[in-house]
Structures are given as structure tokens and as C-alpha cells.
Specification:
Blueprint: E1 6-10, E2 16-22, E3 31-38, E4 44-51, E5 58-65, E6 73-77, E7 88-93, E8 99-102, H1 107-120, E9 128-132, E10 135-139, E11 150-155, E12 164-166, E13 177-182, E14 188-191, H2 197-209, E15 217-221, E16 224-228, E17 239-244, E18 249-253, E19 264-269, E20 273-278, H3 283-296, E21 302-308, E22 311-316, E23 326-331, E24 337-341, E25 352-357, E26 363-366, H4 372-384, E27 390-396, E28 399-404, E29 414-419, H5 423-427, H6 435-530
Antiparallel strand pairs: 1-2, 3-4, 4-5, 6-10, 7-8, 7-11, 9-10, 12-16, 13-14, 13-17, 15-16, 18-22, 19-20, 19-23, 21-22, 24-28, 25-26, 25-29, 27-28
């Protein structure tokens, strides 16, 4: 602007003292008719005419200055007032706006810093305000004008539920959710996580502070949430607190379910997701640890998952409105391993083995000169290469062992057919019209003789086993007959003894009866003689 009222001090000799200084800070319109008058204390008063400074036309304004033009200062010491969290400080400014605040988590210095900002904003009265170690310093204008009267009042324990929310006594545990409903503002929610209550409240304080039209500052400390209004003269809005226990936890306890190796556990999660595993050699805990990793990978449903001592814990998303539903299915042992035993099949070189794999590729192999195990090892390699059906396969001692996948259906079915070497193919052609043909013919004849010997040996072994079995059955029959004869003899002797005993008893009874009858007759005869 082209307008302004400036001043310059001079000493008694007319020499300048200091530099030129601005008298009127409002220079957007015309200022004129400046006038000065001295004061008895060495200061002076400047007056001028200013247009549109606080109205729509001209007005007369004045400013008082000290003799030195140094800003006036005032110090307010709160350090010895024993102020604590919850105490309220009110500073009333004559001709200005009162500022106030409640001591929160940042302590007295934190409050004085906030009050200093509010005081500095009143730039028509103060050029600056600062605080340090519980002391508030007020600095007047550069003109040296006197500071207005400042009145300080203190209120002990003035914090209300609108200013302080104490969660430290609520016995909150991991997984509990805190919901803050703000009058006229946006709801703020948080779930107590592994970092503890103070970390959660710090996060919630940040969200509350973002609602700057309702809160000037929000801080947290030691499980408490401190809230201040948007300015020193406005209280924060009313806050309604809602607490929910174990909001985002799902705990699945598999202890006591008698789960063993081979049993399958399936978790069907809402939204079409699934986590499943089959209990392996590592036991239940190893299986649950694997399932926890799979569940944790479902980042759209869970923030983390863990397993310990037969219990699977699923932890939901911190910002989710609810936990996803989980349905648990337990299935008895699913066959994950099988064997095919060729050791007693009397397979010889040239015999063919055919394997039809359900849902996979068929395999054919011919017993090679290297022996049966070499051929079976080749078949095992072909099985193992079908990774969509098998996780491994091996051969040893004439037996193929193959294992299905860790998850999914049971191990695939395999149908085996065996084809013996065709003797006519082994013998023909046997032309000896050349040296090579003769050698080939001899080799074929040797092979045939060897196969015949092997078959004869095999048949002989079978016949020997049959003979042994027949002899054994004959011995069993003879032993059975002998045992039966002894049993019959024992029964006859017992019956004969019983018959003799019965006859003796009957004869004795007859003799005693006859003797008794004779005694009664003798008595009668004696009676007759007496008569």
C-alpha cells in the first residue's frame, strides 16, 4: 500500500535515535493528520486519521508508546502450582479473548504450548507468547504499548467425561473392540491388538484429531484418552463409548477329537474360501500350524492366524464389521499311501507289467535283464512324475510304494495286469543262414531254456508246497482220529463205571428191604408167643 503512519525518535540535539518504526499496522487505506503528544514518563502518544480501518469511513486512532519503544512482557509461572492431569487453566485478557484448556497426557507444558498459540493469534494485543518449564511468557507489541490486565484462574480435577475417557480400568484384552460414537462427527473404532492398549488409543486419537471442527487436540497416555475442543472456548463433543469382548477372534479347539494321522480337517469360510489339511506324521500341531499359514494368506478375511497345543486361532481384520463365518468338517483317515507287491508273481525277463492309473496316465514296462527291481524303479519314477496325483513313489524288494497328495481325495486307484513272455516270440525266428542269425538263434534258445528251467523250478516249488500241505493235512486227520478214539474210550469207561455203581446200590437196597421185612415178622411171632 502507499499509505502508512511511521515514526522516528530524536534526541535533544536533533540526532536520530534508532530506526524508523511503523505506528499503524493497518495500511490498506488512507491515513492522515498525524499528531504527537508527550507523556510524563518519557513515553508519547501518536494519533491519526484512518479510513476504513474498522468501519466504512474515517476514524481517529491513537497508540501509546514507551520511552524506549521496547515491547512490554509479562511472565506467568505455573511451575509451583502442583497442577496435574485433569486440572483446568483459564486466562482472561482485558480487551481480548479468554483462553482455557485442561492438562492432558502431554502435561502442563503441552497445555501451555497450546495456550501460547491461542494468545499469539490475538496479534492486536500480543506480538508473541511462549512457554517453557511451566512458565508462560507474554510479549506485547513492538510499539512498547502496555499489556492489558491478565487474570488467571485454576480449577482442580475439572475433567469431565467429555474431556477424559479412562480405559485402563476396563480390563480390556486382546481382540476387544472399542467404538466411539461422536455427537455430530464420524464414528471411530479400533480393536485391541498385540501392540497393546496405548498403541490402539494413539491410533484412535489420530482419527479423532482429524475431525478438526470438533476437536482441537486429542492425546492418549496410560490407557486414557484426552480430548480438547476445537478452540480454547469450546468444549469437545459428547462421546459415547461401546466395548465389545473378543470381537475379531475365532478359536477352534481340536483337543479331545481323537484325530489321528490320515484324518482330514476342512475349514469352509464364508465367501467360498476353504482351508484343509490331512494330519501327517508330524501330528495335529504341525497340521494346524500349516493351516494357520494358509488362513493367514487369506488377507481379505484374516489379519493373522496361529496354532498352539491343538488350538487354531483365527484373527480377523481390524477394520472389519464382523468375523467371517467358519464351518469345520472332520473326516476319518483318508488313505494317502498304497503298495503293489510283485515279489510273489514269478516275473521273469520279458514279462510285461501294465498299470492303469485312475485319472492319470497308464504305464507299461517289460522286465529287463537288470531284474525286476530295476523295472519297478522305472515304473515308480513314472508314477512320481504325475505330480497331480502322487507326491512320491519308490520301489524295493519287488514292491512299489506310492503316496498320494497331502490334500484332496484319497490316493488314486491303480489297476495292474501282467503279461507273460510269448514263447513263440522268444524262439522264432531261429534261422541259421548266417553267423549273426545263428548267434541270435542260440541266444533265443538259451533264453527259452532258462525260462523253462525257471518255470519248472517255480512249478516244483509249488508242487513241494502242495505235497507238504497234503502231508500236513494227513497228519492232522490221523491225529484227529486218534483223539476221537481216546475220547470214545474215555466215555465208555465212564459209562460202565456209572452202571456198576447203580447196580450195586440197587442190590444193597433190595437186601436191606428184605432184612427189614424179616425183622418185623420176628416181632409179630414174639407177640403171638406172649399171648
Amino acid at each position: 500500500s502507499d499509505y502508512g503512519i511511521y515514526g522516528q525518535r530524536f534526541d535533544a540535539s536533533g540526532a536520530k535515535v534508532g530506526s524508523e518504526f511503523l505506528i499503524n499496522t493497518t495500511t490498506s487505506n488512507e491515513q492522515s493528520f498525524a499528531a504527537l503528544t508527550s507523556l510524563t514518563n518519557g513515553g508519547f502518544v501518536a494519533a491519526w486519521n484512518s479510513k476504513g480501518q474498522d468501519g466504512d469511513d474515517y476514524g481517529v486512532y491513537a497508540q501509546r508508546f514507551s520511552s524506549t519503544l521496547t515491547p512490554a512482557t509479562a511472565i506467568i509461572d505455573f511451575s509451583d502450582r502442583n497442577l496435574a492431569v485433569g486440572d483446568k487453566v483459564v486466562i482472561e485478557i482485558a480487551g481480548g479473548t479468554a483462553v482455557k484448556g485442561v492438562i492432558g497426557a502431554n502435561g502442563l507444558d503441552g497445555l501451555l504450548t497450546s495456550l501460547s498459540s491461542s494468545l499469539t493469534a490475538q496479534d492486536a494485543i500480543f506480538s508473541a507468547a511462549s512457554s517453557s518449564s511451566g512458565v508462560l511468557t507474554l510479549t506485547g507489541l513492538a510499539s512498547g504499548a502496555s499489556l492489558p490486565a491478565v487474570t488467571v484462574s485454576l480449577e482442580k480435577n475439572s475433567t469431565t467425561n467429555q474431556n477424559l475417557i479412562n480405559f485402563s480400568e476396563k480390563n480390556l484384552v486382546l481382540g476387544d473392540r472399542i467404538t466411539l460414537d461422536i455427537d455430530g462427527g464420524a464414528q471411530v473404532q479400533g480393536v485391541l491388538g498385540s501392540q497393546g492398549l496405548d498403541a490402539l488409543l494413539t491410533s484412535m486419537a489420530t482419527e479423532l484429531s482429524a475431525q478438526s471442527s470438533l476437536f482441537g487436540s486429542v492425546t492418549s497416555q496410560n490407557g486414557k484418552l484426552f480430548m480438547n475442543g476445537p478452540d480454547a472456548n469450546t468444549d469437545p463433543p459428547r462421546v459415547t463409548v461401546n466395548l465389545e469382548d473378543a470381537f475379531y477372534f475365532s478359536t477352534l479347539d481340536f483337543n479331545g477329537k481323537n484325530l489321528v494321522e490320515g484324518d482330514r480337517i476342512t475349514l469352509n469360510i464364508s465367501g467360498g474360501q476353504k482351508v484343509e489339511a490331512v494330519i501327517g506324521a508330524g501330528g495335529l500341531d504341525a497340521t494346524l500350524a500349516s493351516m494357520a499359514s494358509d488362513a493367514e494368506a487369506l488377507t481379505g478375511s484374516y489379519s493373522s492366524a496361529s496354532a498352539n497345543s491343538g488350538v487354531l486361532t483365527l484373527i480377523g481384520l481390524l477394520d472389519a464389521s464382523s468375523m467371517p463365518g467358519v464351518t469345520v468338517t472332520l473326516e476319518d483317515g483318508t488313505n494317502r499311501e498304497a503298495q503293489i507287491d510283485f515279489s510273489d508273481r514269478n516275473l521273469v525277463e520279458g514279462d510285461r507289467i501294465n498299470l492303469v492309473v485312475a485319472g492319470g496316465n497308464s504305464i507299461q514296462a517289460v522286465v529287463s535283464p537288470n531284474g525286476l527291481d530295476a523295472t519297478l524303479s522305472s515304473i515308480a519314477s513314472d508314477l512320481a512324475s504325475q505330480t497331480g496325483l502322487f507326491r512320491s513313489a519308490s520301489a524295493s524288494g519287488g514292491v512299489i510304494t506310492y503316496k498320494g497328495l497331502e490334500t484332496g481325495p484319497a490316493v488314486a486307484d491303480i489297476t495292474v495286469t501282467l503279461e507273460s513272455l510269448n514263447n513263440s516270440q522268444a524262439l522264432f525266428p531261429t534261422a541259421i543262414n548266417s553267423f549273426d542269425s545263428a548267434v541270435t538263434a542260440m541266444e533265443r534258445i538259451d533264453t527259452s531254456v532258462t525260462q523253462i528251467n525257471e518255470r519248472r523250478a517255480s512249478f516244483g516249488a509249488v508242487i513241494n508246497r502242495l505235497d507238504f500241505a497234503a502231508d500236513n493235512l494227513s497228519n492232522i486227520a490221523l491225529n484227529t482220529e486218534a483223539s476221537r478214539s481216546r475220547i470214545d474210550d474215555a466215555d465208555y469207561a465212564a459209562e460202565t463205571t456209572a452202571l456198576a455203581r447203580t447196580q450195586i446200590i440197587q442190590q444193597a437196597a433190595t437186601a436191606m428191604l428184605a432184612q427189614a421185612n424179616m425183622q418185623s415178622r420176628q416181632v409179630l411171632e414174639l407177640l403171638e408167643l406172649d399171648g
